[in-house]
TrEMBL record:
Residues 1-71 form the Nuclear receptor domain. It comes from Caenorhabditis brenneri (Nematode worm). It comes from the Eukaryota. It is found in: Nucleus. Keywords: DNA-binding, Metal-binding, Nucleus, Receptor, Transcription, Transcription regulation, Zinc, Zinc-finger. This is Uncharacterized protein. The keyword Zinc applies.
């Protein structure tokens, strides 16, 4: 029996048990743009079905949740240009449709056998007997073979300039080296594991580096092992083993190969090259998603595949450091090989982030004047009234540090604020949890948190429609529990400093991954994010931070995306339960964005 309307023929839908009609109602209404929906049962006949408001509450009471409903697709924006004597033509491709075939990736797999044969001709049958000098000598022809394969799959790559092609290969090859060796390890895991534990492992290491040094300048065996073994151990334990346990197949490995090759997140390629690479990456990602969907892969499979790219970024830093150590210790490498690694120097200054930190105190003072000294005493309605003014203050510091933002139109600035503000609310609350951790722990251990919740929502409701305290806690406690356990505590454990928190603020503000901003705005945001990411990497290197530190900062952005989804659900529940919110706040929260 349906737990919503009582009809027969109930089955699981979106986390609850209901009939198909109620499931269809929930799917239609859960993505509504209306923030406030009131009960109209008193205006209806006694024999009528429950109103939309009450029926939605019943659906949610059965366990139906928003995140299990597929989001509405964005309508294609069709621009029709009318010219004399011409016929308007419309694009038949929707950018939001994920293809269920993976023709390009499959084509890469099909052609890989031929490429592999040519590569074996370059490296020979005894690749494990090569030294570093011999390996570096075949680098250039190897990269050209891989590039020819990419051009065969994506002919548009031929349109790139010679400089862009060279830059793309320089950006690609260090990470490909690490992936290629990891794939070789994965195909013979048991044998490789035994080999690592044997004396043959150190003998191979001595041959690889020792025979690449001039005899008169060769280091002693124990010096070679002491210098280079930590790099090999890192590549084995921190790169190859984690990749092996992801159990990727050929299609997924080829997708990673293409994503590495067409990486647009570098400043040494032109804007036209970056646009082409970005579009090709979109194609590969959509095909990969479709492939994993058709093969009934678990939901996190796509994220796990993308995580390999982060592993390879760490490995790239290590191999770059290793090449530098080789130069210091007279290891002979070809000029082509050294030219590739010369392209990957990361600047060490973090001027823009530091400048933001220095100007933050002035901004903080203005925000305190806006919110008052008793921030914890404010209701949801009070906070929503300051949303527009606060977001403009936050955007102003971005304009101060990066004056190019002033060139954007008002529509783009408004879209940036709408995209940024919900995640910043979650991040700022997490920062407050970190700086006032003792206060929040006392709230969690006593009934102080429940009292705060009741006041926060209850005083934002009209007196005649105010819910009882128990109902308020039942509705909103799960959201606060999720925030403390899934967002605030993980951020607290990462122990970010001011520079890292400001870097996260800037990365959230300059997010180019939305469709509601113009191409010019997206390009500007992407370039500013590159600046911030490079400065953050340089800051970590100068402060001798662990290699996971940068990954932790980036993973926080994913945490905030989850927090934003929960926050959107919370605002929807507020609308269903007569919580009054300011129109400016509702306008920010109801903007459609992908």
């Amino acid at each position: 029996m349906c737990q919503v309307c009582g009809a027969a023929g109930a089955e699981p839908h979106f986390g609850g048990i209901s009939c198909r009609a109620c499931a269809a109602f929930f799917r239609r209404c859960v993505h509504t743009k209306k923030i406030e929906i009131t009960c109209t049962c008193k205006q209806r006949l006694a024999s009528s079905h429950p109103c939309r408001h009450c029926r939605m509450l019943k659906c949610m009471a059965t366990g139906m949740i928003k995140c299990k409903v597929q989001a509405t697709r964005e309508k294609n924006k069709i621009k029709i240009t009318c010219l004399p004597g011409s016929i308007s033509s419309l694009s038949l491709l929707s950018c939001n449709i994920i293809p269920r075939e993976c023709a390009n990736i499959s084509n890469t797999v099909a052609n890989w056998g031929e490429v592999d044969t040519k590569r074996k001709g370059l490296y020979g049958d005894s690749v494990f007997e090569m030294n570093f000098t011999q390996f570096s000598n075949v680098t250039k022809p190897d990269t050209l073979l891989l590039w020819d394969l990419a051009v065969k799959i994506f002919p548009d790559a031929k349109l790139l300039s010679g400089a862009d092609k060279q830059a793309i290969l320089c950006n690609f090859f260090p990470r490909w080296m690490m992936l290629d060796s990891a794939i070789g390890f994965c195909t013979s895991f048991e044998e490789s594991s035994k080999y690592i534990a044997s004396k043959d492992y150190t003998n191979m290491l001595l041959h690889f580096y020792g025979t690449s040094m001039p005899p008169e300048k060769r280091l002693k065996d124990d010096q070679i092992i002491e210098t280079f073994k930590p790099y090999w151990d890192f590549h084995y334990y921190e790169t190859a083993v984690p990749i092996y346990f992801k159990k990727l197949d050929k299609i997924e490995y080829m997708a990673i190969f293409l994503l590495l090759l067409f990486d647009d997140a570098y400043a040494n390629i032109s804007e036209e090259g970056a646009v082409l690479c970005r579009n090709l990456r979109k194609v590969v990602k959509r095909e990969l998603k479709g492939y994993q969907t058709d093969n009934n892969c678990y939901e996190k499979r796509f994220i796990d595949t993308m995580d390999v790219l982060l592993l390879l970024e760490k490995a790239e830093e290590k191999i770059t450091s290793e090449v530098l150590i080789c130069a210091v210790n007279n290891v002979t490498l070809s000029d082509d090989f050294k030219a590739i690694f010369h392209c990957n120097i990361i600047p060490r200054s973090c001027f823009n982030i530091t400048n933001t930190v220095e100007n933050w105190s002035d901004l903080d003072q203005k925000r305190k004047e806006l919110y008052g000294d008793c921030f914890y005493e404010l209701s949801f309605l009070d906070i929503s009234c300051f949303a527009k003014a606060d977001s403009k203050l936050l955007l102003s510091i971005g304009e101060l540090i990066f004056p190019d933002l002033n060139l954007l139109g008002e529509a783009d600035k408004k879209a940036i604020i709408s995209n940024f503000f919900p995640r910043w609310v979650v991040m700022e609350a997490s920062i407050d949890y970190c700086t006032n951790n003792q206060y929040h722990r006392e709230l969690l251990e006593t009934d102080g948190l429940e009292k705060m919740m009741v006041k926060f929502y209850g005083s934002s409701m009209p007196m005649e429609n105010r819910l009882e305290d128990e109902v308020i806690l039942k509705l909103f406690r799960p959201f606060w529990k999720h925030f403390y356990e899934e967002i605030a505590e993980p951020v607290y454990q990462m122990r970010f400093d001011k520079v890292e928190c400001i870097a996260i603020f800037l990365l959230i503000l300059f997010d180019d991954a939305y469709t509601n901003i113009s191409d010019d705005c997206s390009r500007l945001c992407r370039n500013l994010r590159k600046v911030v990411l490079r400065e953050l990497k340089g800051y970590h290197l100068d402060n001798n931070c662990s290699e996971m530190r940068f990954i932790n900062v980036i993973s926080t952005l994913m945490l905030l995306e989850k927090g934003e989804e929960k926050f959107q659900e919370e605002v929807l529940i507020c609308g269903l339960n007569n919580v009054s919110l300011h129109d400016d706040f509702k306008e920010i929260m109801q903007v459609e964005k992908l």
